[in-house]
């Protein structure tokens, strides 16, 4: 563990109930590509991250299933408009329900460029980026483990999108981007592969 890994931001505890049913969230979920400039609260970000990869049992099981409970995914926050959170890239720590402070500064524009200039990536107050460390799962499952990691990213992203709807937010999933460019923006090591970008924010009303 490096000194940087010891710089944490504690997140508010997640709520385990809500006013929107699962059925309603499923019915309302749509891809949103226009976001208001208003910031998100740290409570909202906490809920989104918990829905995506939060721990839900004393044994360490999470909100999204993982083959062999090996959890190859890492979850990153590219924040540009979150109250009480510095702009920058932060890594989610599921077991602690907190964030490791990473690269500083508003990097949404750089992420947008690496996502083939899809402008909503820059406009959203936050993007959640899922990456995978394949070695965590291929040691047991061989090359099949890569597929399992991709399936897990889909589970986590859907959880995130449904939680966004339940909070009155919009989201869109992005798979078109330059892998090496996103790795550079996030400061990832060579063992970590970016898989999915999910911008989240309040839908811009016309």
From TrEMBL:
<dbReference type="InterPro" id="IPR029479">
    <property type="entry name" value="Nitroreductase"/>
</dbReference>
<dbReference type="InterPro" id="IPR000415">
    <property type="entry name" value="Nitroreductase-like"/>
</dbReference>
<protein>
    <submittedName>
        <fullName>SagB-type dehydrogenase domain-containing protein</fullName>
    </submittedName>
</protein>
<dbReference type="Pfam" id="PF00881">
    <property type="entry name" value="Nitroreductase"/>
</dbReference>
<dbReference type="InterPro" id="IPR052544">
    <property type="entry name" value="Bacteriocin_Proc_Enz"/>
</dbReference>
<dbReference type="InterPro" id="IPR020051">
    <property type="entry name" value="SagB-type_dehydrogenase"/>
</dbReference>
<dbReference type="GO" id="GO:0016491">
    <property type="term" value="F:oxidoreductase activity"/>
</dbReference>
<feature type="domain" description="Nitroreductase">
    <location>
        <begin position="28"/>
        <end position="202"/>
    </location>
</feature>
């Amino acid at each position: 563990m490096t000194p940087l890994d010891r710089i944490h931001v504690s997140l508010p505890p997640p709520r385990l109930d809500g006013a929107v049913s699962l059925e309603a969230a499923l019915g309302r979920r749509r891809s949103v590509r226009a976001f208001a400039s208003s910031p998100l609260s740290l409570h909202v970000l906490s809920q989104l991250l918990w829905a995506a990869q939060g721990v839900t049992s004393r044994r360490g099981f999470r909100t999204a299933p993982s083959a062999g409970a090996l959890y190859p995914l890492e979850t990153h926050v590219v924040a540009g408009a979150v109250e009480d959170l510095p702009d920058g890239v932060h890594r989610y720590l599921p077991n602690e329900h907190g964030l490791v402070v990473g690269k500083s500064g508003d990097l949404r524009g750089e992420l947008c460029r690496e996502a083939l200039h899809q402008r909503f990536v820059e406009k959203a107050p936050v993007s959640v980026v899922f990456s995978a460390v394949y070695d965590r799962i291929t040691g047991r499952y061989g090359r099949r483990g890569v597929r399992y990691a991709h399936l897990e990213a889909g589970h986590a992203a859907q959880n995130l999108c449904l939680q966004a709807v339940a909070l009155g937010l919009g989201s869109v999933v992005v798979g078109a981007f330059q892998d090496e460019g996103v790795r550079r923006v996030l400061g990832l090591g060579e063992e970590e592969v970016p898989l999915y970008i999910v911008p989240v924010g309040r839908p811009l009303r016309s």
